[in-house]
Amino acid sequence: MGGVRPPTRTRLAPEARRTQLLDLGVRLLATRSLEELSIDVLAEEAGISRGLLYHYFGGKQAFHEAVVRHAADDLIAQTAPPEGGEPLERLLASVTAYVDYVIANHAGYQSLVKAAASGNDVLREIYEDARSALTGRIFTEDPWGDLIPDTPVNRLIVRGWSAMVEELVLAWVADPADVPRDRLLELAAGSLPALVESAAGPL
Amino acid sequence: MGGVRPPTRTRLAPEARRTQLLDLGVRLLATRSLEELSIDVLAEEAGISRGLLYHYFGGKQAFHEAVVRHAADDLIAQTAPPEGGEPLERLLASVTAYVDYVIANHAGYQSLVKAAASGNDVLREIYEDARSALTGRIFTEDPWGDLIPDTPVNRLIVRGWSAMVEELVLAWVADPADVPRDRLLELAAGSLPALVESAAGPL
């Protein structure tokens, strides 16, 4: 406080370093489950001491939470729909990014789903927040308003649809069964308007 | 061995008693999570000793597995589609039974989903087997053949759809948000033909 050193630099440096470590953690999580991502693994990959990592993250649980939160932010940023275009094209672009993310980060994503379901409250909250951000965007982004009116039934549909898309991708990664990726993308994106339309009309 | 007592009766009696205890376990699971369903709780409700329950089930883990397997068999039996009728009517009847089962057994069902996701291999296997039985029925039951041709894409759709229906019901139980049960049922059953149809046509 009141020192002569530029405060922004001294405060930013550890934060930037922490972000760098989180980026590395997220990359490692692509091919590892959460259980396999230990402080030891990160220390070795980052070439720094376990002690320093504990200094940055406090402990294994806090480290996992920070990495998963960082991964969730990544996912939300990467799946942002493009600015312009037709509603269905933007939905397809967003779903494509989601599907590609899950394919590329399969091990870590699968383990997050497990952790969220198994009763780790913090990880479940991160998972639920990410899912809410992804699905809520469908209603808050202006152009979707025309495609999907914001009603309780459509909120329920979008929530069910997001569970379906997650299951579709995880099942497809485990066993593609000759279904090409483009077909999977069509299923994932095309199913939402189909569901909304079928729910709006008579059974 | 070689005794004079009728062997069927002496062998059947403990089995019938075990089934009775499993029925009770399944009933208790309707309003309890698996963690809350202990040998102690069952012993108290059944009015018999813990020792006898250990004799029947071997231990807590084996007891939970036996109860969940019994519940899964129950679910599969209760959701069998009716013999006659139109394909869509039969699907609606089957889905209605599923939705009502999950509503009535919400706590136990939710905890099974958690246990299956969290890495308990036996419970996951029971869960996956039940899901396979429920979804596979859509293809093996003759009349559905006309509604949903058995293709890799449709197998994937049915799998995604079953995850969606599960999510729809669990989300609806947690917060019905003014959506009536009939609307939920229409969504759950009507969505499958809509998904298959939309996947068959151009995007």
TrEMBL record, chains A, B:
PANTHER family: HTH-TYPE TRANSCRIPTIONAL REGULATOR RUTR (PTHR30055), TRANSCRIPTIONAL REGULATORY PROTEIN (PROBABLY TETR-FAMILY)-RELATED (PTHR30055:SF174)
Pfam families: TetR_N
Signal peptide boundaries: none
Name of the molecule in the record: TetR family transcriptional regulator
Keywords: DNA-binding
Superkingdom as given in the UniProt entry: Bacteria
GO molecular function, one term: transcription cis-regulatory region binding
